[in-house]
Amino acid sequence: MKLLFLLLIMGSSSIASTEKEMKGRVVGVIDGNTLEVIDDKEEKQKIVLAGIDCPDAGQEYAKEAKRFLEKLVLRQEITFTIVGKDRLGNNLAVLKVKRNVDPRVELLKEGLAWTAERNPLPELEAYRLEAEKNQKGLWKEENPTPPWLYRRQQSMMEAKSN
């Protein structure tokens, strides 16, 4: 039942869940939605927060998103569940820190993230819409570029220069 729920909320048939909540400690923040964690088996894992996407390096609010996530989770004990893999093979996870705080929700509330490009989770989308309505963070901009479009634009520019 839990796996079915995860498949439904993630909206992808390619998701394979470990269904096991793990414990760990955040040892690095790579960007606004990517972390390095030492898990309860003392193994280092790269984790991408499932269901959100933050501005990439070079975009407005990328540094703010990273700093915000660092303040929230760096050197903190966390619990996390791997819910699948992204297109690059990175682990997608849902995690909690300090009294059950979900960093995805906090990033969305601050206007420092978008919900996923495909099949955004309604419970996360509500936080994004509220931040947009209140013009928080990146929503202060007239027409902010989602990171997935930014990545595509960067790839096209690189292809043209080669």
UniProtKB/TrEMBL annotation:
SMART domains in the cross-refs: SNc
Cited InterPro entries: SNase_OB-fold_sf (IPR035437), Staphylococal_nuclease_OB-fold (IPR016071)
Signal peptide coordinates: none
Domain TNase-like: 20-141
Keyword hit for Hydrolase: yes
Keywords: Endonuclease, Hydrolase, Nuclease
SUPFAM superfamilies: Staphylococcal nuclease
Protein name per its UniProtKB record: Thermonuclease family protein
